[in-house]
Amino acid sequence: xxxxxxxxxxxxxxxxxxxxxxxxxxxxxxxxxxxxxxxxxxxxxxxxxxxxxxxxxxxxxxxxxxxxxxxxxxxxxxxxxxxxxxxxxxxxxxxxxxxxxxxxxxxxxxxxxxxxxxxxxxxxxxxxxxxxxxxxxxxxxxxxxxxxxxxxxxxxxxxxxxxxxxxxxxxxxxxxxxxxxxxxxxx
Length: 187
Prior knowledge:
Blueprint lengths: L1 E3 L1 H7 L8 E16 L6 E4 L2 E8 L8 E7 L4 E2 L2 H8 L11 E11 L4 E9 L2 E13 L10 E11 L15 E12 L2
Antiparallel strand pairs: 1-9, 2-3, 2-4, 2-11, 3-6, 4-5, 5-7, 7-8, 8-9, 9-10, 10-11
């Protein structure tokens, strides 16, 4: 896959202003991954997407919008005991807060893709979060092809900012996110 840079897409866009394109999320071709330091071995895991609403405007990137709800109660870590600890009251408290939600408040183009700023809600606590986004298209496809894409979102958050302070003597505060979403243009 080669990157489909938003800057190139803006240059290739037609002069007429088009409405944002709505996309469906393909769960089978997507992963929502996270990683936190745990001594010499990082804790890695995945969390399923419960719902996603995505509209990309290639003519006016700032008009793009994303809303994602993750199923925190179904999160899994690569270390079995870490899965239960992560869902417990001292970290994600999934009994009372089974979902994590992100809604964009601004999208701006960058040299390599876009920067998406939004409100992230974990444990009922909301803070601003920033994710870097890069779009990819299938190899060999037309450079203006926009029907079948992958979007890579990366960023990091402080878990203590959301009250997820459990096991701080064992697990690092920074949680790194790597989300690869396969998206297809809505019919």
